[in-house]
Write a structure and sequence with these properties.
- There is one protein chain.
- This protein is α+β, with helices and mostly antiparallel strands.
- It folds into two domains: 230 residues, Super Roll (putative capsid protein of prophage fold), CATH 3.15.30; 94 residues, no CATH class.
- It has nine helices and 16 strands.
């Protein structure tokens, strides 16, 4: 007996899983779930019609380093700093999920064998779950990428696309927003808070709280005695280590009790405080609020030995640096709505005001269904004259 033909094509299977919603309506369900972004100080600018960022040469002179390419490959377009109004390209990000091949193949075999009788509520829930898993994963990835950009720019003054955060794509691209070189400071030798990477050896001449306080006072004077509200940003890992630095504990302990003169007694007194009280004491000593950035990203990379896809964890906020950042708006997220010409309109949906495009693609030859994403958005700082970055440890 000949096998029955599939009563539905692959896109109709997706429609069945959407339980009466069209693709855009389904994507819109995530608006309430993802209404908060960790992009403090950056606001969304209206989307543009081209792939350039307009934090123009007159204000920041954003430039990019040459990309590392094969000799036979063309280079990437570069901003011409000498011409006012010429801008650099916004990097495009793409990702996709293939709906679970094993599960989908099993369900399609059931449809092939039993026809419409296989289209049960249970099957509908399974397909809906696969669509939800893939769509939510792509939206999370998009938002995480904006967080990653924001944290790297604030903590380093650059946005670098390289093997660490883009192991399977473009590499060697450094978008430099031209924060003045005098706004950077790097501790060396024993002035570093720790002189080794695992933070087991304190710098003999280090004094983290004195350094932060002195640096902040110099910033205020540099800004012509500005009263602009600022805060300190620091990675969670560096912050936790700093709370155990002997000079930090000693300074806090002596502040708690001016009669304490012995270092060990001062350290012991500070160690009795919980982390919240330590933070309050530190903010009083240095004279500005502290924002601890507990933020990591995961990137897909290829394990060449085992030929598998693995996830690597990276810090979003540079764990060697601290940043002095103005309160309020410090920049914009600029970008475009990616082109969708040539796609069937009902297979395309947009998210976040058109900044993220989510599309369906079916491949009948391999019985595969893909949910794909594309975005071209870049965090562009506008407060570069008021941003300061210090590298304080090994």
């Amino acid at each position: 007996m000949a096998a029955k033909a599939l009563p539905l094509d692959l896109h109709r299977i997706i429609e069945f899983g959407l339980t009466g919603s069209n693709w855009q309506e389904f994507v819109d369900h995530y608006n309430e779930k993802y209404d908060v972004l960790n992009i403090g100080g950056f606001e969304f600018a209206p989307t543009k019609i081209d792939y350039t960022f307009s934090q123009l040469i007159a204000s920041t002179g954003a430039t990019t380093l040459p990309a590392y390419v094969d000799p036979e490959s063309p280079g990437y377009e570069k901003a011409l700093k000498s011409l006012a109004g010429v801008t650099g390209n916004i990097p495009t990000q793409k990702a996709f999920y293939s709906l679970n091949r094993v599960v989908m193949l099993e369900k399609m075999q059931m449809i092939n064998k039993f026809g419409s009788a296989a289209l049960t509520p249970e099957m509908q829930n399974i397909i809906l779950g696969l669509l939800d898993e893939s769509t939510e994963g792509l939206i999370k990835g998009y938002f995480n990428s904006l967080t990653h950009q924001r944290m790297r720019i604030v903590s380093t003054g650059h946005f670098v696309i390289d093997i660490e955060n883009n192991p399977r794509g473009l590499r060697g691209i450094d978008i430099d927003f031209n924060i003045l070189s005098s706004h950077y400071d790097t501790l060396t030798g024993t002035s570093r808070w720790w002189t080794n990477a695992d933070h087991t050896t304190e710098g003999a001449a280090s004094d983290p709280l004195k350094y932060i306080k002195d640096r902040y006072q110099k910033i205020i004077k540099k800004q012509f005695h500005s009263t602009m509200p600022m805060h300190l940003e620091i990675s969670d890992s560096l912050w936790n280590d700093m709370l155990e630095h002997s000079k930090v504990l000693e300074r806090i302990g002596k502040r708690l009790n001016v009669l304490i003169t012995n270092s060990s007694d001062a350290i012991a007194a500070a160690q009795n405080l919980d982390d919240e009280e330590l933070k309050r004491q530190i903010e009083r000593i240095i004279g500005l609020p502290v924002v601890v950035q507990d933020s990591v990203a995961w990137v897909d990379a290829v394990d060449t030995t085992n030929r598998t896809l693995v996830q690597n964890e990276i810090d979003n906020f540079d764990p060697k640096n601290i940043a002095f950042v103005p309160d309020g708006k410090i920049g914009e997220i600029q970008g475009v709505t990616p082109l969708t010409l040539g796609y069937e309109p009902d297979k395309i949906a947009t998210f976040n005001g058109g900044r993220l495009v989510l599309s369906q693609r079916a491949n009948p030859e391999t019985h595969s269904i893909y949910i794909e994403s594309e975005a071209a958005q870049l965090c562009v700082p506008s407060a570069i004259n008021h941003m300061y970055i210090s590298t304080v440890t090994a």
